[in-house]
Amino acid sequence: MSLPLDREEIQHLTEELEVIIAAHLAWFKHINRALVCASPVNKADLADDAHLRSPFGLWYYSHDRHPLSENLDFQNLGEIQQAMHAATRLALLEVFDKRRPDAEIYDRCIDLTLRLNTMLRRVQLEIIGELLTTDSLTGCASRRGMLTRLREEQERALRIQRPCCLCLLDFDRFKRVNDEHGHPAGDAVLRQGLKFITGVLRKYDSIYRYGGEEFLICLPGTPIKDAFQVIERIRSGLERLPIRLPNGESLSITASFGLIEMHPRHPVEEAIANADMALIRAKENGRNQVEMWDAE
Fold first, then answer.
1. 43, 154, 172 from 211: Cα distances, Å
2. pTM confidence score
3. What is the 3-state secondary structure (H, E, C) of 100-132?
4. How confident is the model at residue 127 (pLDDT cuts 50, 70, 90)?
């Protein structure tokens, strides 16, 4: 799952799902009491539109476009929930008429209720996974799972016969920023710098916090000459970007870049190491520039 949300929004979504799951289980407890213990039946659960009135329904159908609307499990929740309410209505009608509910109908009601809960938990776990693989400061992907995803891009590049480029970037003289302006200033550089960079990248590009002030960009389906133009646009844009510091002052920054086209059959780790060598060369040659790795 890849959500176009920042970390705080993803965290809020996780908490929102926890509330909905709890409300759904409370509804299930009430229904089971009615079916097993002959507790009073809520007439709203007998209505044709009961799926819209339940706690889950009030949440699920109240959004014009939910952040999870592209998620397949989220899309399937509505179908399962409507089937659950149809089975629940049949079982409750028998209780309402002072009869024991048919065992087959009761089992279907319970099975669908538990299935809905399981799918809600699965969606929640996917979102928690998104949190675990997102850098808390910059909002870009962390190194967790990075190599797996890069290998997938490498395999895709081989399959579609289109190149895939990697670029390591390092903010220049970042330690000096921390020493002279404090760590909040360093955080501002990373946060605002990465916001600019992600705005330049395409939606199918990816960027990972590789370590400290180093970041790795993956540009699928991009020949190295085209990748160079993208990275040069990032470099020149960062050079002109005013970083707003917490004390109200502004700071100028630059970054150095090492760019390489991944070999489709060589290890991803080798490509990263070569990108790092190109980055070192960029720094040795004066910083604030893009160096392309030449295998020869």
1. 58, 22, 14
2. 0.64
3. CCCHHHHHHHHHHHHHHHHHHHHHHHHHHHHHH
4. confident
Please state the separation of Cα 74 from the chain's center in Å: 15
> CA–CA separation, 75 vs 60, rounded Å?
10
Cβ pair 25, 32 in contact under 8 A: no
- The CATH number of the domain where 70 resides is what? 1.20.120.30
- Domain match, 124 and 206 both: no
- pLDDT greater than 60 at residue 2: no
Choosing from 213, 214, 232, 249, the catalytic residue is 213
Residue 141 lies in a domain: no
Q: 144: part of which helix (H) or strand (E)?
A: none
CA angle (181, 185, 190) in 5-degree steps = 140
Residues 163 and 287 grouped into a single domain:
yes
**296 has catalytic annotation:** no
